[in-house]
Amino acid sequence: MQEIPKEASACELGQEKYHVAIIFSAILWQCFFMGAIGVTFCGSSLLSGIIIATLLPVTESLAVLFYHENFHAEKAISLVLSLWGFFSYFYGEHQQKKKKKKHYTRSFAHSKTMTLLNTLYLC
User: Fold this and answer.
1) Tens digit of each residue's pLDDT, the chain (123 residues)
2) Domain-wise residue ranges, the chain
């Protein structure tokens, strides 16, 4: 906290813009963590972890875009692996939903058939 006035006075944009940037940065981080907690609560901790792991290299890529940082091989590998994990998770979820739907349809058809047979048998 003691370094903030020194950094603000050294900022090229001015002290007011520096303080506004710090305040908005703190607010955005709070929103991010509240969102992560919400995803954990409503979805799963795995999904929350995947989203956070995907956002880290995306943040680095945005830094390359806006701050003109160098895009090294480590950043590219990190981005590719995190996107691969992100899409693999959603593909697996999609496959599980298809399998559950197929199983539900079979069990529903089986129960209707059994009900019909029981009705015929009892008559």
Assistant:
1) 778 888 888 877 788 888 888 899 899 889 988 988 898 888 888 888 888 887 877 788 888 888 788 888 888 888 888 888 888 888 988 888 888 877 666 655 556 555 655 565 555
2) 4-92
In terms of Cα–Cα distance, which of 54, 17, 16 is closest to 32? 54
Sign of torsion, CA 118 119 122 123?
negative
Residue 14 token pair: 């001015």
- Given a contact cutoff of 8 angstroms between Cβ atoms, the answer to whether 82 and 54 are in contact is yes
CA–CA separation, 59 vs 55, rounded Å? 6
CA distances from 53 to 46, 79, 109 (A): 10, 9, 42
Tokens 């129960």, located at residue:
111
